[in-house]
Design brief:
The protein has 113 residues and is an all-beta fold. It has no helices and 11 strands. The strands form 2 sheets. Strands 2, 4, 5, 6, 9, 10 and 11 form a 7-stranded mixed beta sheet that branches. Strands 1-3-8-7 form a 4-stranded antiparallel beta sheet, with no helix packed on it.
């Protein structure tokens, strides 16, 4: 059974950091395009970072370039999103995805002073 489980969300002050994890089961993440997305209240879901299969080419949304880093640990079959210098506009539910077709349940990130 294919499953994605996100964790690591929470509440932080502006300028803080969080690391999100996405544990995958039922498939091997390195064989698929994987991605991190987010959805803020009243807004459409948007791509934050995408990691291509195999060569691990990573693309970031302009709004997070230089602050977020996506990577995966193939031994743990887990995807990560390191988020630094967080801003209030980063507040959203963050999801990981396989091929933009299979989704986790999401984890809430709130950035507020």
């Amino acid at each position: 059974q294919v499953q994605l489980v996100e964790s690591g969300g929470g509440s932080v002050r502006p300028g803080g950091s969080l690391r999100l994890s996405c544990a995958a089961s039922g498939f091997t993440t390195s064989a698929y395009n994987m991605g991190w997305y987010r959805q803020a209240p009243g807004r459409e879901r948007e791509m934050v970072a995408s990691i291509s299969a195999g060569v691990d080419y990573i693309e970031y949304a302009d709004s997070v370039k230089g602050r977020f880093t996506a990577f995966r640990d193939n031994d743990k079959n887990t995807l990560y999103l390191q988020m630094n210098n967080l801003r209030p506009e980063d507040t959203a539910v963050y999801y990981c995805s396989r091929d933009s077709t299979t989704w986790g349940q999401g984890t809430q990130v709130t950035v507020s002073s």
